[in-house]
Amino acid sequence: MRHPQAGAGVSWARTDSYRSTDFTAPGTESSMHGETVIAASPERVYAHLVDVQRWPDWVPEVRRAHAPNGIQLGAEFEIEMYGIHLEAVVSEYQLNARFGWIGSSPDMSLYQAWELVPFPPGTQVIARKVERELTTVVVGGSRVEALYYAHQNTLLRLRQLAEAGGPSA
C-alpha cells in the first residue's frame, strides 16, 4: 500500500496473519518493511533514531518516551504508543548501522529495527516492524490503512528531520 503523500523514494510492504478487517481474533500479527534513501550521513540518521526522548516529535504513534539511563545495548526504556504503555529494551545497537528494540505490555508486543546502509551521497534506511496483538487492542473503529500510513509517515518524518540538519535538531 502506498501512502497518498509519500512522494518518490519511500516504499512500504506489509503482511498480516488475520483475514478480516475487524481484528477480533487473538494472535494477530502484522509485519511491515519500509525503505527510503535519506540525503544525510548514517551518523546523523542514527542520532535521531537513538534519541528516544524526542520520538514524540516525529514518530506519529508515539505520545511519550523515556530512557532514564540513555540508549545502549540492553538499556531499558518506556514508551507510550497507540495509547498503550510499553516496557522496552534495546535489543540491537550497532553504532551508525543498526538499532532495534522490543517492547511489551500485557496486551501487545512489538519489535522494531532500523538498518542504515551508506548509499552515497546519503543513507539507505531499512525499517522493519512486527506488531503482535496490537490490532485486537487498538484499532477499534479506525481504518486499517491509518496504522500503516503512520509507519510510512515515520520514514518520511525521519527523512525530513535528518535532511534538515543537525544530529538531532
Task: Provide an overview of this structure.
The chain is an alpha+beta fold and 169 residues long. The protein has an 8-stranded antiparallel beta sheet. The chain is 22% helix and 40% strand. The protein has 4 helices and 8 strands. Helix 1 packs across helix 4. Strand 7 and strand 8 form a beta hairpin.
Strands, helices and their partners?
Elements lengths: L9 E7 L12 E10 L3 H8 L5 H4 L3 E5 L9 E6 L2 E11 L3 E7 L4 E11 L2 E11 L1 H5 L5 H21 L5
Distance between the termini: 30 Å
Main sheet summary: 8 strands, antiparallel
User: How many distinct beta strands?
Assistant: 8
Run of helices and strands: EEHHEEEEEEHH
Q: Quote the beta fraction.
A: 35-45%
Rg, Å, rounded: 15 Å
Strand order of the largest sheet: 1-2-8-7-6-5-4-3
Tally the helices: what do you get? 4
- Write down the overall geometry: globular
Residue ranges: pLDDT <50 for 5 or more in a row? 18-25
Which class of secondary structure composition applies to the elements? alpha+beta
State mean pLDDT (0 to 100 scale): 79
Q: Could you estimate the helical fraction of the residues in percent?
A: 10-25%
